[in-house]
Amino acid sequence: MRAQLTAEIVEVARAHLATAGAAQLSLRAVARELGMVSSAVYRYFPSRDDLLTALIIEGYDALGAAVEAAGGDSLLQRWLAACAAAREWALAHPHEYALLYGSPVPGYQAPQDTIAPAGRVALVLAGIVRDGIAAGEIAVPEESAPVSREMLDAVDLPEGLGGRLVQAWSSLFGAISFELFGHTHNVVEDHEQHFTQVATRLAAGVGITPPITPPSL
């Protein structure tokens, strides 16, 4: 019963993201829609921030699961599929994406619980790079990177590639955000083709390039 009601509260709150936005999320409004007194909702989520955290973790986990489910045969195919899965999830869930990567909610400070879910996409991309290193398809550059040791340990990559991975990860969501929030309106004519080109260049940045086709004899 408790799990079911918790899920119902989160579902209604998710709908409120679309109508009122994260900054206006109200436990009282959620309780009213569920036909409950607000004090009852507070037993499940003591504050608005607790409810926001639940929505954020749920969003990161859904996005991460979508990217983890993407596949392909070659390193480049896997990389492009993972990037495309992130974009497709964002386009299908714009309000949830905005909660994760849009304007910060005034007064809200994300707790430690959100860190692991937030890193799931980066770990997928890092796994592809590690497989490329193991297969001898990606060379490890001898370069330093302004990336924390904690991040390098999390992605389990040498410093140079770890830095490039962080650049690719942040650029990936920059490209998605530009499209989703309308910054490429009247700028890009074919968003899917444009995104594929961006993702391919990001792949090249971490050493993933298209296989060379030998010339026909």
TrEMBL record:
<feature type="domain" description="HTH tetR-type">
    <location>
        <begin position="3"/>
        <end position="63"/>
    </location>
</feature>
<keyword id="KW-0805">Transcription regulation</keyword>
<keyword id="KW-0804">Transcription</keyword>
<dbReference type="InterPro" id="IPR050109">
    <property type="entry name" value="HTH-type_TetR-like_transc_reg"/>
</dbReference>
<dbReference type="InterPro" id="IPR001647">
    <property type="entry name" value="HTH_TetR"/>
</dbReference>
<dbReference type="InterPro" id="IPR009057">
    <property type="entry name" value="Homeodomain-like_sf"/>
</dbReference>
<dbReference type="Pfam" id="PF13305">
    <property type="entry name" value="TetR_C_33"/>
</dbReference>
<dbReference type="InterPro" id="IPR025996">
    <property type="entry name" value="MT1864/Rv1816-like_C"/>
</dbReference>
<feature type="DNA-binding region" description="H-T-H motif">
    <location>
        <begin position="26"/>
        <end position="45"/>
    </location>
</feature>
<dbReference type="Pfam" id="PF00440">
    <property type="entry name" value="TetR_N"/>
</dbReference>
<dbReference type="GO" id="GO:0000976">
    <property type="term" value="F:transcription cis-regulatory region binding"/>
</dbReference>
<dbReference type="InterPro" id="IPR036271">
    <property type="entry name" value="Tet_transcr_reg_TetR-rel_C_sf"/>
</dbReference>
<keyword id="KW-0238">DNA-binding</keyword>
<dbReference type="GO" id="GO:0003700">
    <property type="term" value="F:DNA-binding transcription factor activity"/>
</dbReference>
<protein>
    <submittedName>
        <fullName>Transcriptional regulator, TetR family</fullName>
    </submittedName>
</protein>
